[in-house]
Design goal:
Layout (H helix, E strand, L loop, with lengths): L9 H6 L4 H31 L8 H12 L8 H26 L9 H31 L14 H12 L8 H27 L11 H11 L2 H18 L12 H12 L8 H31 L5
Helix pairs in contact: 2-3, 2-4, 2-11, 4-5, 5-6, 5-7, 7-8, 7-9, 8-11, 9-10
């Protein structure tokens, strides 16, 4: 009958999309919350990856040692660049992924294939690695590897001073140390994460983008947690190599690692195969919970938009 809303077809649903700017906003808010919650785990992960002498016996021992010898607030070392980095990274990641997905969608049906979803995620990961992740992580890692809390004893006094010192001593390229493994790590991570998150939303909750359905925060957390587990296992060597390349300095001597491939070969020869997965457990403790937190926030933001503007929107 006239005046009655027609049922939503799959074609209609696929043509309804959340604007790129809303995806970007949702990512920035999710990144801020995640950074504040999980910074201590990131500090422990970095210390374990840089520990060549076996000073730390594990995650708990590492955290307890840092708190005992440097104070509890040392577990939040590098929070400023980390929080800024995560906020900007998720803004760029979510926004660029949405733009790439729009470009790859079938213009007639609005559908997105799994191949296109993987390519969109990989492209977003590469972009964030080159523009944001690498320079911010170089500064963060340099700050985190410093031991002690007395500013006069530390080489780097803060994130701005750290960045300036790196540029002065190593040149602008110093801020992009470890760019190659970072690109490989982030591209692979995001290709898997966006594809898996969509698959779990559909499989577990029958949630499709544009259908106006808003997931409960706990549902988003389950999907986000599961989507965030595969990446760290697959990209562990890239993460270890990235950290080693970023941590080494050019000032006062030759570089131990000449590049990504040389670093992998050197670590394998000197420390064994398992050393390429150092810090995997704290990564698994940080990334899946981090994705759970981020998606719980992001899905609520985009969910409000869907409920208000897409549920009854004409196509």
């Amino acid at each position: 009958m006239a005046g009655e809303p027609r049922p939503t077809s799959d074609s209609d649903r696929n043509k309804r999309t959340i604007p790129t700017y809303m995806k970007a906003i949702s990512g920035s808010l999710g990144g801020t919350v995640e950074a504040c919650c999980l910074q201590p785990i990131d500090v422990i992960k970095t210390r374990l990856q840089l520990d060549k002498s076996g000073a730390y016996k594990g995650i708990a021992h590492c955290g307890a040692t840092i708190a005992r010898t440097e104070g509890v607030r040392a577990l939040w070392k590098g929070l400023t660049p980390f929080a800024t980095h995560l906020t900007l990274k998720y803004t760029l990641r979510m926004g660029s992924n949405a733009m790439l997905q729009s470009a790859f969608k079938d213009p007639e049906t609005g559908k997105l294939t799994n191949k296109a979803r993987l390519l969109s995620g990989f492209g977003a990961g590469v972009l964030e690695a080159l523009v944001i992740v690498t320079p911010f992580e170089v500064v963060k890692i340099r700050l985190q590897q410093q031991r002690g809390l007395s500013p006069e004893l530390l080489k780097y006094k803060g994130p701005i001073h750290c960045a300036r010192t790196i540029i002065r001593e190593e040149g602008l390229r110093g801020l992009w140390s470890g760019a190659a493994p970072t690109v490989m790590r982030n591209g692979t991570n995001q290709a898997a994460m966006f594809t898996a998150k969509n698959a779990f939303d559909v499989l577990l909750w029958n949630k499709h983008e544009g259908d106006g359905k808003v997931l409960q925060p706990w549902q988003s957390m389950v999907s986000g947690f599961l989507a965030g587990t595969a990446g760290p296992v697959c990209t562990g060597p890239f993460d270890v190599v990235k950290t080693r390349l970023m941590a080494q300095t050019r000032h006062g001597g030759e570089l131990k690692y000449k590049g990504m491939v040389h670093a992998i070969q050197t670590i394998f020869k000197e420390e064994g195969l398992l050393a390429l997965w150092k810090g995997l457990l704290p990564r698994l403790m940080r990334i899946p919970p981090g994705q759970a937190i981020m998606w719980a926030v992001a899905d609520q933001v985009t969910g409000v938009y869907e409920r208000k503007f897409l549920r009854n929107a004409p196509v």
